[in-house]
Amino acid sequence: MSATRYTYLGPEGTFTEAALRTLPEAATRELVPMVSVPAALDAVRNGEAAAALVPIENSVEGGVTATLDELASGEPLMIYREVLLPIAFALLVRPGTKLSEIKTVTGHPVAQPQVRNWLRAHLPEAVWESAASNADGARLVQEGRFDAAFAGEFAAATYGLEALVTEIHDAENAETRFVLVGRPARPAAPTGADKTSVVLWLGEDHPGALLELLQEFAVRGVNLMLIQSRPTGAGIGNYCFAVDAEGHISDRRVGEALMGLKRICPKVRFLGSYPRAGVAVEDVPPLRRGTTDAEFTDASDWLARAQDGRA
């Protein structure tokens, strides 16, 4: 395995590359762009890279399905950290292009909902066609296949384009969450401001089946930050659920919730416990009564005493 190589959703000039370069270790790694999320993750699976950075959630569009599906299937991988990156688009064009001359535009499918209103107001007749990534859209503009691309302003220099319009975003404070993914290993020690990600498969479909999963978290005071259903490919109505929960697997409330889920789910895939991006320990709300590690330990000790006749 190459311990110095990190892959990412390419080509050069993507928001994913910009997010990866915010990590301190990126300065000492070989950063290799890949054509797709599956390709970036497969490089980790087969030992060509130590880790991959891929997008997993957008504040406008929700979960990135390509990443969720890849993490739920195939050889297991694990999330080790996350990166939050504010997102604003620039309209990149070949030098000299005027706004009135733009008839075709491109960008990643996730970008379209974030610029839809701007397009309707300024380029109502322009035809949109999706690209593999925003940077790939810039490359296609460079090659003359489209008139303009929505991408990060930083991609203009890479592809010999100019930013005709900058700071385009329909939603204020839009951001994308990226995750650094590697091969499974022991999770890092808890920081006090952590997140745990899992994928859960429903067993027999019946009224309240999803509620039973959620109750395993709720009764232990574990707050959920994301839950998204994804088809399993086994037919209509067969779903798994990607879940992000507050806390670390070593926290008693989280660990016991996962044990409860393992008892009732036909399959549970642990995707990792890792520090929450942009959240300081002092900003984490106090746990509700009865859900701290000390209270779980006290309850366990009480049960042992009761079993011994000492309660």
Describe this structure in words.
α7 runs antiparallel to α8. By secondary structure, this protein is α/β, with parallel strands linked by helices. The longest helix is centred in the last third of the chain and has 15 residues. 27% of the residues lie in helices and 30% in strands. Strands 1, 2, 3, 4, 5 and 11 form a 6-stranded mixed sheet that branches. It is elongated and about 85 Å long.
Order of helices and strands: EHEHEEHEEEHEHEHEEEHEEHEH
For the termini, the CA-CA separation is: 54 Å
Task: Please bin the fraction of helical residues.
Answer: 25-40%
Mind summarizing the main beta sheet? 6 strands, mixed
CA radius of gyration: 22 Å
Tertiary shape: elongated
| Helix/strand class | alpha/beta
Number of strands: 15
In round numbers, the mean pLDDT is 93
What are the salient characteristics of this protein?
311 residues; alpha/beta; six-stranded mixed beta sheet; 9 helices
Short description:
With 311 residues, the protein is of the alpha/beta class. Helices cover 27% and strands 30% of the residues. The protein has helices at residues 15-20, 37-45, 65-72, 112-122, 134-142, 155-158, 209-218, 252-264, 293-307; strands at 5-9, 30-34, 51-58, 62-63, 78-86, 89-93, 104-107, 127-130, 148-151, 162-168, 175-182, 194-201, 224-231, 239-246, 267-275.
